[in-house]
C-alpha cells in the first residue's frame, strides 16, 4: 500500500511543478510585454518629433545645417538651407524642442 501512495503523490507533485513552471513563464512574459508597451508609449509620446512649419530667422550657417531662431526665441537646427544669416525662411520645427528645453531649464 505505501508503494501505491508514493506513486499517487509523485503524480500530483509532478503536475503541480509543471503548472507552477507554466505560471512563472506567463508572469515573466507579461512583465516583459508590459515593459515593452511602456517603452513604446514613452518613445511615441516624448521622443518622436512633432514638426510643423514656422517662419524662422537664420542665425548661422554651419557644416551641420542652418541654425535658426523661432519667433519665441528657441534656437533650432533646421538642416541644410540656402539662406543667409538674418534671413527669414519657412522651415519644419519640432515643437517638442520647446517642451524639452523648458524641462531642462525651468527658470525661463
Name the overall outline.
elongated
| Average pLDDT number | 81
Terminal residue distance: 84 Å
Strand content: 25-35%
Say how many strands there are.
4
Q: Low-confidence parts lasting 5 or more residues at pLDDT below 50?
A: none
**If you compute it from the alpha carbons, what radius of gyration comes out, rounded to the nearest whole angstrom?**
30 Å
Count of alpha and pi helical runs: 2
* Spatial arrangement of strands, main beta sheet: 3-2-1-4
Q: What can be said about the biggest beta sheet?
A: 4 strands, antiparallel
| Residue share in helix | 40-55%
Total of domains: 2
SSE succession: HEEEEH
Classify the secondary structure makeup into a structural class.
Answer: alpha+beta
Topology:
Blueprint: H1 2-47, E1 51-62, E2 65-69, E3 75-79, E4 88-94, H2 96-104
Antiparallel strand pairs: 1-2, 1-4, 2-3
Short recap of the structure:
With 108 residues, this protein is α+β, with helices and mostly antiparallel strands.
Amino acid at each position: 500500500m505505501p508503494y501505491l501512495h508514493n506513486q499517487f503523490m509523485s503524480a500530483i507533485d509532478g503536475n503541480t511543478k509543471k503548472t507552477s513552471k507554466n505560471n512563472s513563464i506567463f508572469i515573466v512574459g507579461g512583465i516583459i510585454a508590459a515593459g515593452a508597451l511602456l517603452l513604446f508609449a514613452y518613445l511615441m509620446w516624448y521622443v518622436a518629433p512633432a514638426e510643423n512649419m514656422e517662419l524662422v530667422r537664420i542665425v548661422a550657417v554651419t557644416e551641420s545645417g542652418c541654425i535658426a531662431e523661432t519667433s519665441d526665441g528657441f534656437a533650432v537646427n533646421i538642416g541644410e538651407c540656402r539662406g543667409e544669416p538674418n534671413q527669414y525662411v519657412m522651415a519644419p520645427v519640432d515643437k517638442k524642442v520647446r517642451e524639452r528645453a523648458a524641462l531642462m531649464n525651468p527658470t525661463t
